[in-house]
């Protein structure tokens, strides 16, 4: 129950890695607000799945790449107390295509979806953390920022931005008791990679030290660690969770 009574926001929190993060925090006693863009049914199922856990999960439909969406989510999570303990920026998309063929829309949508929520959610989230001078933020990046993957110039640029953003913000808010870290997952078995060609998946599996894909729950464990007091002297870091690729 290391997160008992804590207010936690997880963006993209009803599916894939975000879903695992929401469940992990609820299992640790947190009051989780999970933001999602589509699929009400998945949101309802997640709320029901949390019923047997010590904490709670409340879902909210909002586009966190906009200021209005982010404010709605952060305000809902902070509730009457007005305080937010933990913010997990997990929402993200891929639009893989080689650069010469990449449409401007593929570039802009990936950059907007993966980077703008960092600005909006951190801006409003930090404001809710300032009163108690306490809080933790974890941004979900990707090893794509380090490894460079063909067809992912847009995605790699967005995840590199997430890591640089993490480092800059950690310097700004560290003196106010707020820690900011990132995780960089490798290939994790979620719907995001469901459309990937099998030979690409197999070649990535081969490049891991552990010889397998990662599971969303394994990323969630790393996120919980970074957000918890067990990581009280860690800030501005990006923890790679990739089974040993990098
Ligand atoms: P996913 O596609 O299963 O889930 C992403 C979630 O984000 C969805 O629920 C979607 O509705 C939500 N979302 C997207 N845009 C949103 C917006 N504007 N507002 C609110 N919600 C929004 O993806 P997955 O695999 O769970 O990925 C989660 C994060 O992990 C992403 O940031 C992704 O880039 C990152 N990641 C995933 C890897 C993988 O192999 N699956 C590897 C490395 C990083």
Automatic annotation (TrEMBL):
Q: Which family is this protein grouped under? A: Belongs to the short-chain dehydrogenases/reductases (SDR) family.
The UniProt entry, under Gene3D superfamilies, shows: NAD(P)-binding Rossmann-like Domain
Q: What is this protein called?
A: 3-oxoacyl-ACP reductase
Q: Name its species.
A: Geotalea uraniireducens
Instruction: Read off the NCBIfam families from this record.
Output: PRK12826.1-2
**Domain named Ketoreductase: residues:** 6-186
């Amino acid at each position: 129950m290391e997160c008992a009574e804590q207010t936690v926001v997880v963006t993209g929190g009803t599916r894939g890695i975000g879903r695992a993060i929401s469940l992990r925090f609820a299992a640790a006693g947190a009051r989780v607000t999970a933001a999602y863009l589509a699929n009400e049914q998945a949101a309802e199922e997640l709320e029901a799945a949390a019923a047997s856990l010590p904490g709670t999960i409340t879902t909210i439909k909002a586009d966190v790449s906009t200021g209005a969406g982010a404010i709605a989510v952060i305000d809902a999570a902070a509730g009457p107390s007005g305080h937010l303990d933990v913010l997990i920026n997990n929402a993200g998309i891929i639009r893989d295509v080689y650069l010469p063929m990449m449409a401007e829309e593929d570039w802009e949508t990936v950059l907007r979806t993966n980077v703008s929520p960092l600005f909006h959610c951190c801006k409003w989230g930090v404001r809710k953390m300032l009163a108690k001078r306490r809080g933790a933020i974890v941004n979900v990046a990707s090893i794509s920022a380090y490894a460079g993957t063909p067809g992912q110039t847009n995605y790699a640029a967005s995840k590199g931005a997430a890591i640089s953003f993490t480092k800059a913000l950690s310097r700004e808010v560290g003196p106010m008791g707020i820690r900011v870290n990132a995780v960089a997952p490798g290939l994790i078995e979620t719907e995001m990679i469901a459309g990937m060609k099998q030979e690409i998946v197999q070649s990535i599996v081969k490049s891991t030290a552990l010889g397998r894909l990662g599971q969303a729950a394994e990323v969630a464990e790393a996120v919980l660690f970074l957000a918890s007091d067990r990581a009280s002297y860690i800030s501005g870091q990006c923890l790679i969770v990739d089974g040993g690729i990098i």
